[in-house]
Amino acid sequence: MTNETYSSSPQWKYDVFLSFRGEDTRKNFTDHLYSALIGRGIHTFRDDEKLERGKNIEPELFKAIEESRFAIVVLSSDTASSTWCLKELSKIVECKRVMGQIVFAVFFHVEPSHVGNQDGDYEKALAKHEQAYRDKVNEWREALTEIVNVSSRWDLKQRNESEVIEEIVNDISSKLDSASSSISDDLVGIDLRMEKLLRYLDIGSLEDVRTIGIWGKKGIGKTTLAEQAFERIKDQFEAKCFVSSVRNEHERHGLVHLQKLLHKSLLKSEANIPNFRIGINILRGRLYNKKVLIVLDDVAKLDEIEKIVGKSSEQHNWFGKGSRIIVTTRNEHLLRSFGEKSIYEIEKLTQDEALQLFCKKAFEKGQLDDEYKEISNEIVKYANGLPLAITNLGSFLLKRDVESWSSELARLEEHPDEIYKL
User: Which of 62, 177, 243, 415 would you label with 102, given CA atoms 20 to 30 Å apart?
Assistant: First the structure.
């Protein structure tokens, strides 16, 4: 993985980056796929149209890959002969690992095993590249192996091309609709924090089972970040489950109830679990070969992790390779006791981010009114970068006069805990 800095724009520039070997597929399958995507209103980047002639296009090409929510890689028998295609593929796999980009693979009359194992034409093509690109060939081999293992893949052998195109377009359209419904303009500062979390998750690493802990104060945005990450990467897993308010669920209903929730969400069936020890055996026995995504939100006790998703040293026996578990908590010591090394302390909002969020809530047009400028800065400073506090304050103060704002700030300074009761 490189150490590049990725942009964290709140909106993707493109829905889809379409990667293909032009000589093989441009005038048939790829052209029909591109037309179908455009016809459904899916903003698609195709390098032979969008790049300006006469420029050094590699940086611009890589930028377009980074700015795309999805990538479709059409692999043909001659793909590996093109270093251009191999560079594209390597960059796409990197974005999958680092940014959670969702990748689709289409095998255009080529055996997936030839791609993954670099046999046949792929073996010959890579052997020719060894001399001029010795430092790159191993990276390209790894990318080819990884692309074969993506969950969304189509083999055109003995398939009707129009049916495959319809399936791909419908799948992407559905995912875009789902993503659009989950994203809010109020999530100020989420993108930089999401980028950091995705680096911890490293979902492109297929060999390990990993738990990532997110910790921080009440109201700092742990749940919101976990929810957005879940929505962003869930389609890359065989099964997924978001367990909300683990602390409260445990207190009210016990550990067995949490185990049953997990079983039902991941395996789509009810489980007869008489006690938590049997629950451990049932979950471990049914999930050991599945690549799963699990979020345990607002965990307060070690048992709420170990009895639900296993001890840190045993998780590779509970879940399939590539599985990811996200735990949110207010207690850093809890995560260290569990034995987790991937711990992300979520940052408070900066002054600028906090003011931006406050204005969205406190002013009807979302813009700072000059009359309220001084008191707004005082209130934001008081909220100390906590999104929940800023949101509560802004919503409460909406349509009130400056005197009311000053009065409320004075009251909260005497009774700070009441900021979460507004």
Answer: 243
pLDDT at 10 over 60: no
Which H, E and C letters describe the chain, residue by residue?
Answer: CCCCCCCCCCCCCEEEEEECCHHHHCCCHHHHHHHHHHHCCCCEEEHHHHCCCCCCHHHHHHHHHHCEEEEEEEECCCHHHCHHHHHHHHHHHHHHHHHCCEEEEEECCCCHHHHHHCCHHHHHHHHHHCCCCHHHHHHHHHHHHHHHCCCEEEECCCCCHHHHHHHHHHHHHHHHHHHHHHCCCCCCCHHHHHHHHHHHHCCCCCCCCEEEEEECCCCCCHHHHHHHHHHHHHHHCCEEEEECCHHHHHHHHCHHHHHHHHHHHHHCCCCCCCCHHHHHHHHHHHHCCCCEEEEEEEECCCHHHHHHHCCHHHHHHHCCCCCEEEEEECCHHHHHHHCCCCEEECCCCCHHHHHHHHHHHHCCCCCCCHHHHHHHHHHHHHHCCCHHHHHHHHHHHCCCCHHHHHHHHHHHHHCHHHHHHC
- Mind telling me the catalytic residues? 88
**Tell me: the pLDDT tens digits for 74-131?**
999 889 999 989 999 999 998 888 778 899 999 998 999 989 999 889 999 999 998 8
